Structures are given as structure tokens and as C-alpha cells.
Amino acid sequence: MTGIEEAEAQLSEIELLTSMFPSQNEFNIRDQLALAELREYVEGRTDYLPSSRPEFVIHQKMDTEDLKGVTVAISCTYVVDYPNVLPDISVRCPELSRAQQARLHADMNAHLKENCCGEVCMLSAVEWIKDNAHLYITKNPAAQGLQRVSTETPPVEVFTRLWIYSHHIYNKVKRKNILEWSSDLGLSGFCMPGKPGIVCVEGPQASCEEFWARVKVLTWKRIMIRHREDIPLHSQSGGEGNVTSLRRFSGFEEAMFDPHGNRGNHMDLGQLYQYLNERGCGEVFQLYFGIEGR
């Protein structure tokens, strides 16, 4: 299969999925620009194979009796050689532990490699997940005869705030991912693009760790967690309310502070300090830059 044939197969699959899942709540294309570039290439309006790869999410409700009310999010990012090579597919669901998720991914990919080699596979992936998700997701242990008396201490809920440092954040796709992933995971905070790049996310610990897991695997010159705050909630009542009260940021935003320099990629650090200080985070400035803010 040639490059243009692969691109045609990718576009045809997206158009089929769009017709099968007409609601944005069911099928959401994350990068419309990548889709537009793919269409231009297939239609011969450009000779260049798009560098951006289409990404989308299918939200699938489970209809088996033991998983009523459970929805899984099936994320897909095409690779250049798809369908000759499997795309990057991940399945996310609150009822899936990390171990269950790993097993599901391994078994699903093995099934797709055996049955969909050289062919588009997303409908097969969706059908496999609908048929097999109950083997990995434990929504109601009692209903499955798994209930037992436990003497273990209940897990401690933790509120987390991650302060992430990057050598730079220029790329528009990365910036878009950061905004979308923070929204998907219910996190608040901010992203300051430019050089250096700074990201703060706050919320439930599992959501913050999932955000970091997604971000760190992107291509970076340098990225690291500069500082981490973990606040146990077990001694406080009403866990969700406490998460809300501990937030320093009301939502997540991309924050720009008087961009300047030859490429407009440097920010006014004095304004950054004021921004942090107004939210009770002024002490973090010294952790990033080694000097006290003013």
C-alpha cells in the first residue's frame, strides 16, 4: 500500500466513523487541522504528506448488564503507515485500574494484529472492547461474587499539584494537547508557553499522574517535575468539596505575560511572579528560577 493509498484509507475510516457516531459526545476529532491537511493531500491539493497525525476519541457506552452506565473513551492517533501498522489506541475508563488497562491494551493489540493486519481497524477495536471490556472492568464486585470482608485500610484520597518545567514550549500541537488533557481530566492550573515553559496542574492525584504520563512521552528537549505538592484528604470530610477548596486556580488557561524577544517567546517574569503571588503560589518562583520574585 502506497502513501497516498494509506492516506485514503485513513480519511475513509474517519468519514465512516463520523457517519456512525454523528454526535460530538460520541466521536470527537481532536485536531481538525490535521484532518484538513490529510484531506488536502488525498484530494491532490498538496504534494506533501501531512506531518500532523489525525487524533480522535470515541466514547462508547457499555451495554452488558454488569457494566450498565459505564462509558469508555477509546483514543486513537494515526501513524504515518496506518493501516499497514496499527495506530496508537488507548482505552480509558474510571473503573479500569492501571493493571487492568495494561492487560486490556495488550490483549486488544494482539487481537488487532492477528485479524486486521493491513486493514483499517477502529470498528474492530470498538467491537472487541464492547465484547470484552467486562473481563477487565470490575464495576460491582459483589454482583460478580468477588465481595469479601476486607481489613485493609481504605486508600487515602490525595490532592496533588504538579509544577512542571520544560526547556521551552513552542509547538502548537503540544500546547493544544496540554489544554485538552487538563480539561479531560478535570484539572486546574495554567501553561506558560515560550522559553522556559511552565505548566501547573492541580486536582485528584490520579488525574495529575495521568496528565504527567501523557505529557512526558511527547518529544521534549527537556521536561521535568520541578516541584510536587501532595495533600492527604483522609482526615477531612467530603472529599470532592475539599479538592475544590484546595485549588489555587479556578480553571486551566494558557497564560501569556507580555511576550517579547525576537520570536516573542520570552515572558515578563515579573508579571509571572505577580500572577503566582495573587494565587498564593509566589514561593514557587524561587524554585523555578533560583531567585526571589518581586
TrEMBL record:
Tree of life domain: Eukaryota
SUPFAM superfamilies, per database record: UBC-like
Protein name: RWD domain-containing protein
Upper taxonomic lineage: Eukaryota, Metazoa, Chordata, Craniata, Vertebrata
CDD domains xref list: RWD_RWDD2 (cd23829), RWDD2_C (cd24163)
Listed transmembrane segments: none
Domain RWD: 12-136
Short name of one Pfam family: Prp3_C
